[in-house]
Fold this sequence. Notes:
Layout: H1 9-63, H2 100-108, E1 135-137, H3 156-162, E2 177-181, E3 210-215, E4 220-224, H4 228-235, H5 251-264
Amino acid sequence: MKTxxxxxxxxxxxxxxxxxxxxxxxGAIVNCFSEEAKRLKRRSxxxxxxxxxxxxxxxxxxxxxxxxxxxxxGISRPNEPAWVGRxxxxxYMHGKRLxxxxxxxxxxxxxxxxxxxxxxxxxxxxxxxxxxxxxxIIDCMNGVPQPDNPHGRGPKEVMKKLIIKQKSQIRISHQKxxxxxxxxxxxxxxxxxxxxxxWWNPPPVRHEDGTTVSFADCHAEYWKWKxxxxxxxxxxxxxxxxxxxxxxxxxxxxxxLHKLQWIVWKMGYYKPSVFDE
Length: 277
């Protein structure tokens, strides 16, 4: 009786099935890496945009006797036009947006435009569609709060010392945030409480459960939030649900808020031990 050494039809199908499975698995892996590469590329572009905007912000005060540009988007003050014009619709809380043409026109009317005439710098590739600006200047950098009116961020007598209107007030430039990627265009500046353990504006989470920020020395960073409640709050909040003033409840949630407050204002209620002077 001869010993059978060749493949039978059943064996061939098994081998082919294994090959198909391996190819599908390989395809899934390649696709996974491809998506990750795309995310990293978008984040890299965003960080580059923030650096370029911050450079424009620096050149502005170099050209203007160390005066910090008005950081309240679309809100001009006497002798202080804003860094960008009013690129948001009055009914933005109801999801209304200006046309792209109008948004670009008021961006070009802003004080930083002459230093980098590129509309693409004002928007993150991962920002919400329909917005030509996704970046905001942080409260402390001559934003909405002013020495004569802190707009609820903290006590007037304290805030007038913390609101930065001159470059000379910035002691440690690599620790002072200038821009943050909110993901959409909002009025004014990105709001942060000084003396309350609450979010004023919600935490942006469009960068894989985190956001990007730039600092006064012109470097930019990616921040990934630690707290699940931070991420949940960011995901459930959009332009139509701003200013929820939510208080974090968990250790990680508090850490996220404290990290932001500490680097913006130095905090008015206590200093978390996890941060250094």
